[in-house]
Design goal:
- By secondary structure, this protein is of the alpha/beta class.
- It contains 5 helices and 7 strands, in the order H-E-E-E-H-E-E-H-E-H-E-H.
- The strands form 2 sheets. The protein has a 5-stranded mixed sheet with strand order 1-2-4-6-7, sandwiched between helices. A two-stranded parallel ribbon has the order 3-5.
- Strand 1 and strand 2 form a beta hairpin.
- Helix 2 runs parallel beside helix 3.
């Protein structure tokens, strides 16, 4: 099954609590990655990710794929411009780990993280075993290799 997300289907919705993002004043923090193999869902995160954008732009397409019964092969790119998650997004991430990670554990096939951020690499080294499915970290600039691994 093909997982699809378009720029128009992602982003802060009308219920967004950040008026600047709702008005499009702030740049896209979560952008879908195009040109990925069939069945691979990918996102590039920049700036500091806030709760609404985490939920609406990142998790909504993942929940939709799970509801369609698809297996997940996820690519997340965290370039130098990625600053992390705010407290609200971190809380959403913890809740998602319990609901999506546990409830749909068998749906997660592979998860690739593309980054050179040491704190992300250390976090994956310590907590990666908690991630459902296979998890692998690729160096910045290795998006093509990460996509190829996900498509295997």
């Amino acid at each position: 099954a093909r997982i699809e997300a378009t720029r128009g289907s992602l982003g802060c919705t009308a219920g967004c609590r950040n008026p600047a993002r709702q008005a499009g004043i702030v740049g896209v923090m979560v952008a879908p990655i195009g040109d990925l193999p069939s069945g691979v869902l990918g996102f590039r995160l920049t700036g500091r990710l806030e709760r609404d954008e985490y939920h609406d732009a990142l998790m909504a397409p993942i929940y939709a794929a799970l509801e369609r019964g698809e297996t997940l092969r996820l690519l997340v790119e965290l370039p130098d411009e990625f600053e992390g998650l705010d407290a609200g997004a971190l809380w959403e991430d913890l809740k998602a780990a319990g609901s999506v990670g546990l409830k749909h554990r068998s749906s997660w096939e592979r998860f690739a993280v593309v980054t050179d951020k040491d704190w992300v690499r250390h976090g994956v080294a310590v907590f990666g075993w908690l991630s459902p499915g296979e998890l692998r970290v690729f160096a910045d600039g290795e998006r093509a290799q990460a996509a190829a691994w996900l498509a295997e």
